[in-house]
Each structure stands twice: as C-alpha cells, then as structure tokens.
Amino acid sequence: MEADLKSREHSKSSVSSEVITADRIRAFCDALGAECSSSDRDCVAPPTFLTCFRQGELELLDSIGLKLQNVLHGEQFYEFESDIRAGDEVSIQTELTNVLDKKGGSGRLCFLSLETLFSVKGNVVAKSKTTIVVREKGAA
Amino acid sequence: MSSPAITVGATIEPTYFGPIKIEHLSRYASASGDFNKIHTDLDAAREVGLPGIIAHGMLSAGLLAERAVQFMKPWQEEWKLHSFQTRFKGMVFLEDTVGLSGAVKSVSEEGLRLDLVAKNQRGETVTTATAMYRKN
Fold this sequence. Notes:
The complex is a heterodimer. Chain A is an alpha+beta fold.
C-alpha cells in the first residue's frame, strides 16, 4: 500500500476559492455554542473554522482511492498569520506532503500529512496540517 | 485598565457540552460541511465497524478552541493566537458529555502555551489541544 501512496507524495489539489460570509461564521459558532460578534464587519472566524474548507484534502484522498469514512483523523494543526473575516475571499490548495508507513501492534498503519495553504489576495493567512491514519484494510 | 498578567498554572475550570444528541451533530455537519454519515447515521457507522454514531472530532476540537478564546479574552490585546493543534485520542459517542478544561503551561517573552483537554463522562481523555499565543 505504502509504495502506491508514497509515489503520490507532493501531489497537489486544484486551487479553490471561497468567499467567507458572516452567516457561515455564525452558523459555525452556533454549532459550537460559541459566542460570535454580531456585526458583519467585525465577524472574525473562530480558530477551527477552516475545517469548513477541506475540499483540497478530499480531492487528494479521492484521487488516491480513499474515502473519508474509512480513514481516521489523527491530528489537526492550524497556524495563523492574520485573522480571517467575513468578506474575505480565500483561496485554498492542499498538498500531500508526507506518507509514513508504520508497523503497529494490530497491523500496518499509514500516516498521511496534508498541508493546506489559505490565502487572501495572494497573502497566506493560515496554514493547516491534517494527519490522516489509514489502516491497511481500509486502503482501496 | 489592563488585566493582571497571566501566569503559569492559571486554569480553565471544566465546562460541559452534552449529552450529545443527533441534533448537535446534524447542526455541526451543516455548519462545517462534514457530512460523513458515520456522524449522523447508525447504519453507516456500523458499516465501517463502529459500535455507534460518533461525534465529529473537530466538534470537540472546536469546543476546546472556544474555551481558549473565552479564557484569553482579557488578554486579547496582549496575546494573539498563533497556532492551534489538536489530537484525537478517543471517540465521542451519542449521549456522551464532554468536559472541557485547560491550563497555562508556559509564559515567556516568546510565547504563551495553553493546554486543553476534553474528557468524557467516564473521565477518559478524548481530545487534547495546545494553543500557542504570541505577543501582539
């Protein structure tokens, strides 16, 4: 399995674009029971809001024959350069940066690192790194 | 007036989310766009070998992040969130209640580290997170 996936290291998703709306931020805050500023202009996305934009990750997983329900989400990391606000148009691209094969007690596990850059007007505003765990049987 | 300086050992006392109902998960699915059926459909969950419907890992992560945001509010002029890392240690099932707490692990000129943990009603750690702040 890892030989196949290893060869896909550094493959990139297409670039997609999303306009962040205050409604979307509010819906996300509501689902977390979180406080949210009410005026549209001041509406800042909460820390984990970027999880709404996993299309690049899904595209890459799909391209290597993996389905979300068959993999585990192991870790999630975000690094922020600046606030993401309602009205921002964010461009999104994901890269499969690393494929690591590990022998565990219950068989082989494969760890995939997916890094996504989020940019507004050409400037990176945030980075995310998602660690996906694939059990050998779960691989397509 | 500025708030008193934040120090190592300052804690976020537990608050609770739950018992988690299907409505919570449907609402989070719609808001996040994560419509993986293992979070809303028992048959789909069982099909992939799960004993029941599980909550989105990012729901617990989001709840921890929100605790961090609220805790740091008095110091938001001084400290800015630089990174947020979360690890999924265990699954959260329907009807579970998660307790969310945290503590300041370190403070220096370079940064502030806030560790957060979500535990289920049996006291088992389900999600951990580390929020790193930098001076504004």
